[in-house]
Amino acid sequence: MLLICCRNITPSNFLLLRVAFKITLLLLGGVCSSTLLKAQFQLSGTIYDSSKVNLVEGVRVVSSSGLYTVTDSLGRYKIMVNDNDSLTFYFHDKPTLKFSISSVTDPNHFDIALRITVKGKYSTLKEVIVRTRSYRLDSMENRLAYKDVFDYHRPGLASAVVDGVAGGDLDEIINMFRFKRNKRLRKFQERLEGQEKEKYIDYRFNKNLIRRITQLQGALLDTFMVRYRPPYEFLLMAGELQFNQYVLESLYEYKANLPKLEAKKESQ
């Protein structure tokens, strides 16, 4: 029937129909491609080892739709996915559980920790402003001596791969219910961090420096050091100019109040 109809079409009309057919196919293809692109989005994140500190390079990230990528030297990856996809992470050909994309809350930071240990290129500390070699070495030695305490984190669920079988991190699950142990470690961690902050204040607000700025001596200097000892947060943010200004303003206030302090001592 199509052949009979085509015989009644002139060459010029046939050419127009052919062009119209090609345009229709292009439009349909464009609509389908646009719909597919709208459904897809980029997912990115970072892969850590079991310490949640060291980055893991060379992890293969595979989506159920067939796309894959590999983590770079900083453990980072980016991959195009859609809501119906799931991701599997392979390290040395050992897979993790499948992670459903629909359950991902932040597509820009889908980070996971594998139950493996890798040698880190870098060691990290909480941000500390270090001004002399001796203070830095003291801080590093203290953190190394109590590494397990400083690195303590609240136990939670984590993905694990053991002999090629994916599952939950059993140690983390057990630790979730060791309440006394967790409470003791948290308190110890807080105490060590508090000691570190006090040492930093002693380092910057030291007697020799304050004596040189204020020209105070003896009991006057001792009282000034106690009364105007600055908080850790201020010293962490203050530069030399701001710090010196604080000391001088405190000195003016201290001298203005000296008569009152002397009178109070005599009355006692």
Write the layout of secondary structure elements.
Elements: H1 2-7, H2 11-39, E1 40-48, E2 60-63, E3 68-70, E4 76-82, E5 86-91, E6 94-95, E7 99-100, E8 112-113, H3 133-145, H4 147-150, E9 159-162, E10 165-168, H5 170-175, H6 179-204, H7 207-214, H8 218-227, H9 232-237, H10 240-256, H11 258-267
Parallel strand pairs: 1-8
Antiparallel strand pairs: 1-4, 2-3, 2-5, 5-6, 5-7, 9-10
Q: Report how far apart the termini are.
A: 121 Å
Write down the overall mean pLDDT.
75
Secondary-structure-based class equals: alpha+beta
Q: What spatial form do the alpha-carbon principal axes imply?
A: elongated
Strand content: 15-25%
Report the C-alpha radius of gyration, rounded: 33 Å
How many domain regions? Answer: 3
What's the total helix number?
Answer: 11
Succession of helices and strands = HHEEEEEEEEHHEEHHHHHHH
Descriptive report:
The chain has about 270 residues and is α+β, with helices and mostly antiparallel strands. It folds into three domains: about 40-115, Immunoglobulins (Immunoglobulin-like); about 135-200, no CATH class; about 205-265. The chain is built from eleven helices and ten strands. The protein has helices spanning about 1-5, 10-40, 135-145, 145-150, 170-175, 180-205, 205-215, 220-225, 230-235, 240-255, 260-265, and strands at about 40-50, 60-65, 70, 75-80, 85-90, 95, 100, 110-115, 160, 165-170. Strands 2, 3, 5, 6 and 7 form a five-stranded antiparallel sheet that branches. Strands 4-1-8 form a three-stranded mixed sheet. It has a two-stranded antiparallel ribbon with strand order 9-10. It is elongated, with a radius of gyration of 33 Å.
